[in-house]
Amino acid sequence: SVSQEPSRSPMTRPPLPFPIPPSPGFPPCSVCGPGLMVTSPDVIINLPIGDPTTCGSFERAGKYGFINEEDCPFVVSLTVPCNCQATTAPSVSQEPSRSPMTRPPLPFPIPPSPGFPPCSVCGPGLMVTSPDVIINLPIGDPTTCGSFERAGKYGFINEEDCPFVVSLTVPCNCQATTAPSVSQEP
Question: Is residue 8 in a domain?
Fold first, then answer.
């Protein structure tokens, strides 16, 4: 029998059981909101799409461009359990940001999500392909198809109303998604 010596490699953690996909390259997104950061990185949060994740992982996903810039204003409502606090001055070891803020602050605060399950406003397996088209809602102001889709995705549409909103999205040019969502069951 050949004895094996323990590895002396400098690796401090085991490799991930899956490859990390390349960033889609969206601008950085502060998941807590401008000037705020996660202070409870190990708290697990449930996302409307995908598996639950830690606050720290979600913050890194935003920092490294994995969150679509159109979704960024809505994710703030998901990070309430993350105990977001004002950021402190960066330490010497932190690399300063090389990119300026790419979007102006919102002129109004995004309310917290009421927490309804995700609602596909086009119907299961379909997505909006004309996000800039304006639709009239029976209650409230007109909105874009893209904003309406994000409202459904992030739990702003009551689950009892969800089956009926499909009729509102006809002008949105809903098409089949190209890849199944992680949260969809076979």
Answer: no
